[in-house]
Amino acid sequence: MKLSALQQGYINRRSNSFRGAPPLDASVDGGAKSPAAVFWLVLHGFCCLISLVLGFRFSRLVFFLLFSTNLYSTSQQRTTTDLSDALTLQNKMSSSSSPNPQLPPNRTRVVVGRHGILIRPWPHPDPAEVMKAHRIIERVQREQRLQYGVKNPRTMIAITPTYVRTFQTLHLTGVMHSLMNVPYDLVWIVVEAGGTTNETASLLAKSGLQVIHIGIEEKMPISWENRHRIEARMRLQALRVVREEKLDGIVMFADDSNMHSMELFDEIQKVKWIGAVSVGILAHLSDSDKELSVVQKEDVENSPMPVQGPACNSSDKLVGWHTFNSLPYQGKSANYIGDRAVVLPRKLEWAGFVLNSRLVWKEAEVKPGWVKDLDIVVGEGEDIETPLSLLKDPSVVEPLGSCGRKVLLWWLRVEARADSKFPARLVIGSHSYYVSTVASYSEDMLLKLIHITYDIYKVTNDVI
Amino acid sequence: MKDWRWAFVGFLYFALALRIGAVELGRGQQTERISGSAGDVLEDDPVGRLKVFVYELPSKYNKKILQKDPRCLIHMFAAEIFMHRFLLSSPVRTLNPEEADWFYTPVYTTCDLTPNGLPLPFKSPRMMRSAIQLISSNWPYWNRTEGGDHFFIVPHDFGACFHYQEEKAIERGILHLLQRATLVQTFGQKNHVCLKDGSITIPPYAPPQKMQAHLIPPDTPRSIFVYFRGLFYDVGNDPEGGYYARGARASVWENFKDNPLFDISTEHPTTYYEDMQRAIFCLCPLGWAPWSPRLVEAVIFGCIPVIIADDIVLPFADAIPWEEIGVYVDEKDVPKLDNILTSIPPEVILRKQRLLANPSMKQAMLFPQPAQPGDAFHQILNGLARKLPHNKNVHLKSGEKILNWTAGPVGDLKPW
Fold first, then answer.
1. Mean pLDDT for chain A overall
2. Nearest CB to A123: which of B166, B255, B288?
3. B145 with B277, same domain?
4. In a domain, B311, yes or no
5. Among A100, A199, B194, B283, which is disulfide-ready with B158 (CB 3.0 to 4.6 Å)?
6. Which residues of A touch B263 (CB under 8 A)?
7. Helix, coil or strand: residue B246
8. Chain B closest CA to A55's CA: distance in Å?
9. How many CB atoms lie within 10 A of CB B260?
10. How far is residue A374's CA from residue A445's CA, in Å, rounded to a whole number?
């Protein structure tokens, strides 16, 4: 870049001018041992000693005092003494009493020559300043969002089915922090299986968000099949709440073990009625060397992360769906919660859909013609697998995230064994047997988590 | 009675006009109009306000030099070449010197480059002198004003002092033959020998296409508080520090090298332009000379320039109110830089960003090919137009001579 060229060139051109040479510093050629040479050598050494003691080269000072030939006083003048106010100077200063303090009126007050390097007494960050700077940054970013971001942002309505279990705190805290960082208004509907509990309530209270905490009586079943079904029912219950309260905004499904990127929330604001985003599936194979043959393992590990979402043609129109291919996992998937095998998603997950809340309202005037009424659909007794069942015509779905090319959230299911004893709050000391129970969860569970984190890291770096 | 009615109508019209203006401001990007000490002149059109006559010099003064070294087109002193090209095809050019207000001499004095690409100024005084001798002997216009209505573009480090080292430049002073001419230069420092009264300060040349190619979406949040990339110590020439940048850059480094708010280093990242667009403040400290292309880059990328150079005169200082756009910090206040920057109220910061977002501001700093309205070429012409009509004493009485053709160092008198 220009800088290096500049520097090198100036090195070449300037090397003579600054390296020169009051006779004190002129090196004496090795051979000559005449008395004059010895005298200069001794004088040179003496001056070096003085410089060491003083801490600066005083040769220029001597020359100024002895030979002031230059008419231009500014070029030889040293820095004025006002440097010393309230600032300590480190050893790089060359001071001198300036014999000509009064400058002629049209001379610059900026002097040419060596100046001191000003360093304050504590040259480290000041926490108060850092906080002030962060507030400024926040204000600037808010202004940027106002100018370039979404105009008239709509309220987000996040629906999360959950239940009390070992990893609930882990998963729910993740979702909670994501939602706390959303820059728009948010309503969080948390549906709990087995009724509302104080544990969940106290966890949610820490968020400071507006939370609607409801419960259904059924407990979460053990098998994954049934769990998916109950979760769908919980989400429908939440949609009923939206319908009754007439909440206005954008409904998104934030399952508690999923990971959401902040861009997702910005992208969702663009939805008109119903939209679909791409969901990355983090289905991980543990114990893969034992359970799969080598060929199959290579197949699965070399293929990119499976993605569920809308499929578009070249003119960015929705033509179909990418769904999850469960063939490689045939017979090896988990059946019950806590099973060590991999947990598979459904063909299309709820988390990949976003709805305008008006689609579930009772009044027919606000809704477009192609949506079925919620009570009619659910009243038929069958559970619905995806929100697509609410539509008469699935082609009205809007693909988001540059037509599904950007993966904006990741789906994952990791649970501890259903019969694991876990403490709601770890108390050190009196309940040490709880601690040991926690520790017994196995390093293969921890390994699984580590593998999964690595996968997330890998895919986020590939995909984003 | 009638007056009241007219007053009422006038008031209504005025209110309507104001409302329209307000709506315009709210729509799209929020910007503010820029008006400096000379008024709201950034968007003036110079055509019709002045006439410039371009001398036809033999190509050894311009084309041949450029042919010898085409790097002159991309370095930061390329303004002299592009200005020549612009004037040749501009509507302000006149082929009749009798009606010209200004005379331009196209001599490329900053095109003698070292292998590293830096211009050597040692032959420039002789080149300039030779060009002036040519125009004074072939045309009568120099002699009738001794250069009072001529302008020259001298974009080198210290302008027409023709040296890169400040002490030597001050010693030489401005070339004697140019003391009545108007100088268009990048160097500007108040009360300095190398800045003549009435000079026009211009920004250094920065390649517009290269900068446009690195633009990022404006909704990328600005998360860097202070950004700077460049040298703090010029190790080759001034290892102890204290000479380079008058110690100001070294002071910045020593005080803020471990401060998380200050993203400063000597690296040369490939994402330099993108990073500037993610920063709120960009430091523009002096180097060996007070001006630098960083100012231009900061303005283009919307980063508030923090100018650390005492008494500096910034480009187009009468058309652009730099105190309202950038932040001036005295060199002695550098240790308190973090305090200064964090104590600026957020409304002021937002206003500065709005001023920087003004497209006419960005346009005024660039030298685009081909020229566009409001760009730096037009600002130079506007500056020249504002100096019209010429002072009475520009035209010399017959026989009067002011310039001494043998003044200056002996080496300058050798023919080029």
1. 74
2. B255
3. no
4. yes
5. B194
6. none
7. helix
8. 12
9. 11
10. 40
Q: Give the count of domains, chain B.
A: 2
- Between the alpha carbon of residue A300 and those of residues A339, A448, B59, the distances in Å are 20, 17, 70
Where are the alpha helices (H) located in A303-410, listed in sequence order?
374-379, 401-404
With CA atoms as reference, the chain A residue closest to B350 would be: A140
Name the domain boundary from B346, B363, B380.
B363
Each residue of A124-181: pLDDT tens digit? 999 999 999 999 999 999 999 888 888 888 999 999 999 988 888 899 999 999 999 8
Residue among A4, A8, A10 with most chain B CBs within 10 A, to mutate = A10
Same domain, residue pair B388 and B343:
no
Helices (H) then strands (E): counts for chain B:
15, 10
B265 and B163 in a common domain: no
Closest CA to A353 of A392, A399, A384, A315: A399
Q: How far is residue B245's CA from residue B290's CA, in Å, rounded to a whole number?
A: 8
Same domain? B337 vs B375: no
Is the model's pLDDT at A293 over the cut of 70?
no
Mind listing the pLDDT tens digit for each residue in B385-412?
999 888 887 787 777 778 888 888 888 8
Contacts 24+ apart (CB under 8 A), A373-377: A374/A236, A374/A239, A374/A240, A374/A243
Is A92 at the interface with chain B, CB within 8 A? Answer: yes
Same domain, B336 and B376: no
B194 and B62 inside one domain? yes
Tell me, yes or no, whether B131 lies in a domain.
yes
pLDDT the model gives residue A305: 79
Residues A97-114 have a mean pLDDT of 56
Q: How far is B295 from chain A (nearest CA, A)?
A: 15
The answer on B178 and B232 residing in a single domain is no
Please give the Cα distance from A301 to A96 (Å, whole number): 73
Q: Does A122 touch chain B (CB under 8 A)?
A: no
> Distance (Å) from the C-alpha of residue A215 to the closest C-alpha of chain B?
39
Chain B residues closer than 8 Å to A92 by CB: 240-242, 247
Determine, yes or no, domain membership for B413: no
The verdict on A166 touching B (C-beta cutoff 8 Å) is: no
Which candidate, A253, A255, A318, places its Cα nearest to that of A282? A255
CATH number reported for the structural domain that contains residue B211 in this entry: 3.40.50
Task: Establish if B36 belongs to a structural domain.
Answer: no
CA distance B169 to B180: 19
d(CA A83, CA A300): 69
- State which residue of chain A sits closest to B114, comparing Cα positions: A9
DSSP secondary structure, A194-263, as one string: TS--HHHHHHHHTT-SEEEEEEESSPPPSBHHHHHHHHHHHHHHHHHHHHHHT--SEEEE--TT-EE-HH
Report the DSSP beta bridge partners of residue A251.
Answer: A157, A355
From chain B, pick out residues whose CB is under 8 angstroms from the CB of A135: 346
Partners of B189 on chain A (C-beta within 8 Å) are 108, 110
- Among residues A97, A108, A13, the alpha carbon closest in space to that of B309 is found at A108
The reply to whether residue B310 touches residue A75, judged by beta carbons under 8 angstroms, is no
Domain carrying residue B305: 5-30+207-363
- Domains parsed from chain A with CATH numbers: 152-461 (3.90.550.10)
Nearest CA in chain A to B28: A147
Among B296, B73, B288, residue whose Cα is nearest residue B202:
B296
Which chain B residues are within 8 Å of A126, Cβ to Cβ? Answer: 338-339
* CB atoms B251 and A119 under 8 Å: yes
List the one residue out of B52, B61, B93, B102 whose CA is nearest residue B80: B61
Same domain for B318 and B223? Answer: yes
Phi, psi of B46 (to 5 degrees): -75, -15
